[in-house]
Amino acid sequence: MFFYSIFFPFYVLGICLAAPFSSKVRHLLAGHIRIRSTLKREVDPSASYLWFHASSLGEFEAGRPLLEQIHADYPQYRILLTFFSPSGYELCKDYKYADVVCYMPFDFGFAIRRFLKLVPVKKAFFIRYEFWPRTLKVLSRLGIEVYSVSSVFRSCQFFFHKAGGFYRRCLRCFTHLFVQDQNSKDLLAGIGISNVTIVGDTRIDRVIQIASASSPQPLVAKFAGSGLVCIAGSSWPSDEEVFIPYFPNNGKWKLIIAPHVISESHLREIEGRLQGCRYVRLSDATEDSIEDFDVLIVNCFGLLSSIYRYGQVAFIGGGFIDGIHNVLEAAVYNVPTVFGPNHQEFHEAGELIELGGAFMVENTTDFRMLMDKFVSDPAYLEQCGHAAGDYVMKNKGTTQRIISGLGL
Q1: Is 302 helix (H, G, I), strand (E, B) or coil?
Q2: Which residues contact 65 (CB under 8 A, 6 or more apart)?
Q3: How far is CA 269 from the centre of its chain?
Q4: Percent of the chain with pLDDT over 70
Q5: Mind giving me the DSSP string for 206-250?
Q6: How far apart are alpha carbons 207 and 309 in whole angstroms?
Q7: Is the pLDDT of residue 252 over 80?
Q8: How far apart are CA 208 and CA 1, in angstroms?
Q9: 3-class SS at 184?
Q10: 334-383 confidence digits (pLDDT tens)
Q11: Cβ count within 10 A of residue 209
C-alpha cells in the first residue's frame, strides 16, 4: 500500500507532463476533466446503473457480449461504460447500448467516491485485467457488488508474490471472479480466494457474434478464388520478415496481408518485401483485374474479421513483439492459425496448439515447412481447420454462464 500510495501520484503526474507531447495523452486528460460534467448531464439519479469498465478496446470487445445480453434481458438497468485508454473511449463514445460513456477516474479514493455519488451504481463489472486497488476498496465499503469478468491469472503476477499482500487484499474486494481457466482458479485458491467460477472466455461469444453478422467481401472472394489462401492478420514488420519470404514465386498460395499499422511508410515497406510477387492494394483493385494478382494488401481498417473466412491458413501478427492478436477471429471460420513465440499470455493459443488448430513458428524455415506440409497433405490442413473451429464452438456460452451467477 505504501509504495502504491507513493508511486501512483507520480504516474498521474507523468501523464500530465506528457500531454504537450502526445495527442493521445491530451485526449485522456481532456476526458478526465469532462467526467463530472458528463455524469451531471447524462445520469438519471433515480435509475439503477450497471457499471462496465474496460481498459481499452480489446477489453471492451471481451466484455461486449455480456453488456449487450444484460442490456437486452434486463431493461430495468441503465448502463455506464468507462474506459482508461483514449483508444477505447474515442471509438466507443457513441456506443448505442450504453446510456453513459466516459473515462474512469484515476485511482484515488476521493475521486472514486465523488464519481459514485453522481452515479447510483448497483453492480460493477471489471473486464479481464482491471484491478484498481482504491476503486475496489471504495466499492466494497459502499456495499456495491463488483465482479471480475473473463479474467486470467498467472503465477508471475504480483498477487502471487511474497510481497503481494496489498494486491491480494484487493482481490478480496470482488464479490465474485469469473475466470477463464482451471489454472486461474487454482492460483486464486492458493492465496485463499474461493469465490471463483470457471466460465471460459467471453471473446469466444464475441467472435461468433461477429462472424454471424459479418458482410461478404465480393472483391476479396474473387481474389481468393478456389485455391489456397493465407491471410496475415494484424501483422507487424517482425512478422512480415518471417512469412513474406515464403510467397514470391511460390505458385501454390495466394497471400492477403492486413497489417496492424496502415501507414504509407509501412505499406511501402511491405511492398518492398514482395519483390517477385504481383501485388495490389485493396483500394486499387478492381473486379476485372484482381484475379491477376498473387498478393492483396488490405489498406483499410474494419474488414479483417470478415476476410478470415476466405483463407485456409491465418498468420496472426504480434508473436514476435508484445504478444499475438486475436486468434479466435480466424478460428471461428475453421481456419488454423500460425503465430510467433510470444503467445504465452493467451491461453486459447496454447489450447489450440495442443488440439492441432494452431502452430507456433520461430522463423521463416519453420513457416516454410509448415506451409509445405499443408500443401502436400490437404486432409491434414482440413483436420487442423476443424480442430480450430470445434474449439470455438465447444467453448461458447460464457456470457450465459456469467449471467446465471449474477442474481439480476
Answers
A1: coil
A2: 202, 205, 206, 209, 398, 399
A3: 26
A4: 98
A5: HHHHHHHHPPP-HHHHHHHTTSEEEEEEEE-HHHHHHHGGGSTT-
A6: 12
A7: yes
A8: 41
A9: helix
A10: 999 999 999 988 889 999 999 999 999 999 999 999 999 999 999 999 99
A11: 16
pTM to 2 decimal places: 0.85
Q: How far is CA 53 from CA 8, 104, 182, 294, 298, in A?
A: 19, 8, 24, 43, 32
Measured in residues, the chain has a length of: 408
Instruction: Give the pLDDT confidence of 83-139 residue by residue, as tens digits.
Output: 998 888 988 999 999 999 999 999 888 999 999 999 999 999 999 888 888 999 999
357, exposed or middle or buried, with CB in 10 Å at 0-12, 13-18, 19+? buried
* pLDDT tens, residue by residue, 329-340: 999 999 999 999
For the chain, what is the radius of gyration of the CA atoms? 23
Q: Are the C-beta atoms of residues 315 and 239 closer than 8 Å to each other?
A: yes
The phi and psi torsions of 265 (rounded to 5 degrees) equal -65, -40
Instruction: Read off the C-alpha cell for 2.
Output: 505504501
d(CA 84, CA 38): 16
Please state, in angstroms and rounded to a whole number, the distance separating the CA atoms of residues 401 and 202: 10
Residue 195 has pLDDT above 60, yes or no: yes
Place of cell 438497468: 77
